[in-house]
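Q&A FORM
Asked by: J.P.
Topic: structure of 23S rRNA (uracil(747)-C(5))-methyltransferase RlmC

PROVIDED:
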Amino acid sequence: MLTCSYFSQGKCRSCNWLEQPVEQQLTNKSSQLATLLEGLNVEQFLSPVSGHESAFRNKAKMVVMGAAHEPVLGIVGPDGSPVSLCDCPLYPQDMQALLHRLEKFVQQAGIPPYRIDKSKGELKFILLTRAQHSGEYLLRFVLRSHNAIERIERTLPQLLADWPQIKVVSVNIQPVHMARLEGDEEIFLTEATRLEEVFNGVPLFIRPKSFFQTNPVVAAGLYRTARDWVAELKPSRVWDLFCGVGGFGLHCASKEVDVTGIEIEAEAIACAKLSAEALGLDNLSFSALDSTGFAQGLDATEVPDVIIVNPPRRGIGELLCQSLSAFAPRAIVYSSCNPVTLAKDLKQIEGYEIKRVQLFDMFPHTEHAEVLVLLLRRDSER
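REPLIED BY: S.T.
REPLY: Here is the structure written out as tokens.
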């Protein structure tokens, strides 16, 4: 069982299931999922997929606190005091070391941390993303204004000399006086603007504002499973809605399968197009559109064999459930990070049988889980 000094000392309770052995966590998550799906006819619950207990997380979202001469990267503790999370055991050791180095960087650059209570200071957050296949990093500084950019630029060369694994550095400007993570303006301080990751031989690109799974080992298993399920159906056309950087669609693509990916975030679509180019496939199409609006704007003659949906926590919602029911593709593959909204959506999709459900433990030591579901149209061939 994972031990964590932050948890044992009551400084951080983010991993609220940490006192349970991982096997018990999986049992409890599976039981909760089964309860949520009661009343739905699920043909097969597959065994949960899990990864590492520690050092599995590829992204750190650190609040910057303290003072310029003594910065703290972490969270606000239960008593309101700053808690450094640089040694969080969810991060690989090299990532922990870099977070400590970034505390020193803030001190050397003399950047005052932002204080919500006084509306003073500049540096709000440091966001760090690690590519598992290479150990390279994307580093973002979230600032209140442009005033501290010069300090970052002056101190950055030494940081990059010490840590050549840092490939992308950017500044995000968030002037709003609230806990919102990022603003609209992104300023790159390196020539490189994206970080490459590779899952199952598929190149994926991460840009500052594009969503990316935080548990690479389990994410690779999730994409691999979706690819295998779709391959069994032998489709000629696939839609990947809420596609992000294209993980599902790119895994399911081939010279025989046309893929259309839809995602509202333009940066994510730019990454997906880069991946398609790297794979040498010209039968993939990615567009920056609203997924629900896209589906509502098409007619039945344009419906593919398989539709993949991977929505945010709110789920796909009533309108898209109605569209999917009306379009009636042969199969729907639904990947959800919120079993509660997943269950709600499944109850609103009509005309389908739930063939398989599988839980992926993307978020160990918490109640959260990723779930993959395969639905087949009732009149389709088995």
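FOLLOW-UP: The chain has two domains: 5-53+215-377, 59-193.
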